[in-house]
Amino acid sequence: MAKMTLEELRKLRSSQKSEMERRDVEGKETHIIVGMGTCGIAAGAKGALDGFLDTIKKNNLDDVVVKQTGCMGLCYAEPTVEVKVPGMPDTIYGNVDAKVAAEIVEKHIMHKELVQDHIQDKPAGDIIK
Amino acid sequence: MAVKNYILVCGGTACESSKGDDIFNNLLKEAEAQGVADDVQIVKTGCFGFCEKGPIVKVLPEQAFYVEVKPEDAGEIISETVIKGRMVDRILYKPEKGAKGDAFDIDNIEFYQKQYRIVLRNCGLINPEDIDEYIARDGYAALEKCLFDITPDQIIEELKVSGLRGRGGAGFPTWMKWNFTKQVESDQKYIVCNADEGDPGAYMDRSTLEGDPHSILEAMTIAGICVGANMGAIYIRAEYPLAIERLETAMAQAREYGLLGKDILGSGFDFDIELRLGAGAFVCGEETALLASIEGKRGMPIPKPPFPAVKGLFAEPTVINNVETYANIPAILTKGGEWFAKIGTEKSKGTKVFALTGKIKNSGLVEVPMGTTLREIVFEIGGGIPNGKKFKAVQTGGPSGGVITDKYLDTPIDFDNLISIGSMMGSGGMIVMDEDDCIVDVNRFYMDFCVEESCGKCAPCRIGTKKLMGYLDRFTQGKGEVEDIQKMKDIGEAMKKAALCGLGQTAPNPILSSLEHFGHEYMEHIEEGKCAAGKCKDLVHYKIIAEKCIGCTVCARKCPVNCIEGERKKPHVIDQEKCIKCGACFEGCKFDAIIVS
Amino acid sequence: METVEIKINGQPYEVEKDTTILKAAKKAGIKIPTLCTHSDLEPWAACGICVVKVEGSPRMVRACATSVVPGQNYITHDPELKKVRKTVVEMTLSNHPQECLSCARNQTCELQEVAAEFGIREIPFPMEVKRLPKDESTVSLVFDPTKCIQCGRCAQVCQQLQDVWALEFLHRGYDTKIAPAAGVLLNESPCIKCGQCSAHCPVGAIYENDQTEEFCAAVEDETKHVAVQIAPAVRVAVGEAFGMEPGSITTGKIYKALRMLGSDAVFDTNFAADLTIMEEGTELVQRITKGTGVLPQITSCCPAWTDYMEKYYPDMIPHFSTAKSPMMMQGAVTKTYYADKAGIDKKNIYSVAIMPCTAKKYEIGRDDNMQASGVNDVDLVLTTRELARMIKTAGIDFANLPDEEADSPIGAYSGAGTIFGVTGGVMEAAVRTAYKLVTDDELGDVNVNAVRGMEGVKKGAVDFKGTEVKVAIAHGMANVKSIMDEIRDAREKGSEPPYHFIEVMACRGGCIAGGGQPYGTEDDIRDKRIAGIYTDDEKSVVRKSHENPEIVQIYKDFLGEPLSHKAHELLHTKYIERPLYQK
User: Fold this and answer.
1) Is residue C477 part of a domain?
2) Which of A113, B270, C26, C271 is deepest in the core (most CB within 10 A)?
3) Taking CB atoms and an 8 Å cutoff, what residues of chain B touch A89?
């Protein structure tokens, strides 16, 4: 994209916002958001990421989006992953390795069943929402 | 399977003692008994923190938050909440209204939590490598406002109303810093971001830069607009490769979008930012040393005044703030200074990010409103001390701070309160100690850090740190003398007054503060040659009590240096000369025949 | 001068606006103790003993580095300040070897003085002295890091005043030390041996290489004819070591003392300064009138500057006057002209130079041209400080010595020769003679005020009867840059050279503040020594080099004319590019 004007920035923001809202309302897509800060990566977030990608591919799930984000603050439970599945509460999993990642895909995403022992609490509400 | 409800039972190792397992099993049984086993999934989770009120049970999607749940509550949770969708009022958590005033608006929060994220608002939520996600979350809206809607004076006014104080340690009002620079007439001014995070155990800034790099770029650009600067520099340690990479990506994206560079958003205002990599010297977190380092000189502080706001980088007026301070700016300018001023205490507004580490269950980053108590942070958010050990103290402010004992657990944390109890905010490292930590040993750690990190320029710091280290060394070897305490205090006071920069002036703080609160522990080392925590190896002696020893030989076999001798079925003896005090014999003895003294 | 009202210890004072607390207190007659600060340098704020209190503030500030704020009341002395300062001094002492009696700075040491003022009777903290090897790699200086208190003066002098950057802070914290970068030795570093580090060091960590024993051995050696020369700047400074006022002219006493110390002949470098003017002045005139070399011509009498040029500005080699320094000229004629006249084998002459300078120790061996006579033209260089020490050791009551004269035929000097010791002096002396060479007329007023004074860079033009001769003068090595840049700039653009003649002296104020001069040199002392030099000039009957009868004689009897073949052989040299680091 070329340099923006003020109007273009405002347009981009509102279209991005409504896109996010649409996702929330329609809830069609499944999102896996992997915490890829230094702490996450050091604790093995890359292994978890591979675990997600492999399992998704193996099961031909084409409506799952895997994204990265920064540190959530739950450093004692790294790697952490947030999973958003339509119709289910947004869930944060901690201590996710490749094996747990596979379990999350197979249980949480494919069977709408939470995975035992790895759920963490969201640290705080969102001031922007 | 159509699951309607999810019941989350906190199952961290911590809560096992609070019967988390029983609750879990009872819930399973009750769901089965009441015929809803297929509608509900019961899940054990990691520790939620808040363990003082544990065990905690959460029912989703109702958001029912039950505390101090007993196994016998399981039936009611199933019958009321899962089947009828009603709350069980008896165990429902009720926030303590008024604890922090009305400023803390909990309505927007899923359920009551102690944390409140301004600085970390986007961390863990957005993809830091995608500028669109930042923009979608009101990113660059503050920049828009500052470019087109409000004047530089209004920016200053908004910051003044907000009450934002620098998060780097000293807590100087940000609006004043900016205003000084704004008022100086100069063709060239600079905006500098101090990302030279160096306190042991502190990594808030790294996480912010990694998780939300655009917020810093936006804030620095706003500072540029405000004071009339067109050049910015982020001084970041080379040990933060991921943060550097994310910043570089963010800067490239911002330039592509015209949010950085020439003629930003067609406003005619130019601003660009460069990264300067530091080699990780702690002293370069001191602003004058940092500026010297950016200029390519040896990172050594110079006396202030003149302050960088008036004479800074290349002798030009320079705004220098740290990462956390900048991260607050866009939020303040979008949501308003008044909104920010409602959070926190009278003199310390907003939130503070702490890196909670040490003897704590849930170590990590926490962002809490100023005025939150240490008890809330350690025992509620942090989940308390693991393994049932006793809380001893918290070290805040890193090597510049001090220890806070249980006496002050309920003091609301803000800049001024921490100083009044002998510590300081510092950059936000918070290290929890338990009964196994020796205060002399802990101070040796900090002083060793200061000895290593002193730039060596001024005599009080260069020599003082080394002398203090020498005394601590002798204490841990049982060679201390009572007069040494006074000598340490003399050196400490001289350093506080006569060291050139903040590093040297605050380096004796941990010792002075711990001498006040744990003087007896120092005296124990000096007078009795004893380290109660068993950390000072030279003072620890393992002995076998002949009457209790049955001669099982386990200790002799466990000893890695073969210093335990004795015939089978006869009392064994430890050769004190050879003993390396590893404690293997002590751990291994099943008959309590080995004592530590 | 704009002034402001402040209070010191409750008493009101009117002081210069923006002055430091330290300076304001000094003017008010209150001494705040210091170790690292020096009036030649920007406040470095390292030692931590000049702290004072500002009424109403819990902090202490450094008096050396803090400007006064109108209306504030500064507390300079109270029990708490005394305690803090004393503790810092005690800490510093606990890291400093207690070897005062055998230290080069015994009785001139600033740390010793501070310790005495605080009445320190014992050091309460454990002694901890880091023994580090001495750097004796140069013939000029001894660098003893064991005694260093890291005040930073030497590094600051080397970097800020001299722009040499031979000395750097290495390592951090307790391991901090000041040394050449990358762990090389001084002689492998860009060091120009100017010795300003040694003149500014408050303790005995950097000092001149003491060669007094070599002098003593020479005078004891019956076979050796010891011929001594003294530089212009020595005469106005050595008296300070004997309680005399800075600037006192002690030429005759020095001659006498040198004879008492066993010298066989006592000459004066001022003679050779006149000789230098004859050679260098003629060279300049020829460059201007006959185009025999590039312009501007740059002076070459300062060995530290020559060394600096060879390292930092080798492109300026063609601009350098080929004339040797007065000391080397004096040495060369001592072992030829004088040897012949006195009938002494030059091999038996031991040529000694008393210099205000440590670089001179290096200069005598810098290349083969320094043996123009076939043997070492100068065998030994002693600094003013070493001379003073020898005089003391010999039990000579210097201040009360009678005056004596120098020996002929190379001892007489003109006022032009004596002003070589101050910044602008070589220029002024050259103008006095060049005027004659260009116009064939004598300069009316010999005082060329345009080139005098303490400005770091002085620029001017002298009217040679219609011919404008443009000159520039720099002293303090760091000041040379702007002039060199101008020359390079003109050269690159192909435009007219901005100057005809440039004088450079490495030390601020010129040789009178050289690295080998008595300790404690600051601008007020520089001013007094300079005044002494100009008085010496004014008192001289002959004030132009070409009118010095012994100069006339030596050309008549020996050299022929300036720039003659013989003069070239004995009195001129060449320069080579040298690397900054030799490793």
Assistant:
1) yes
2) C271
3) 6, 60-61
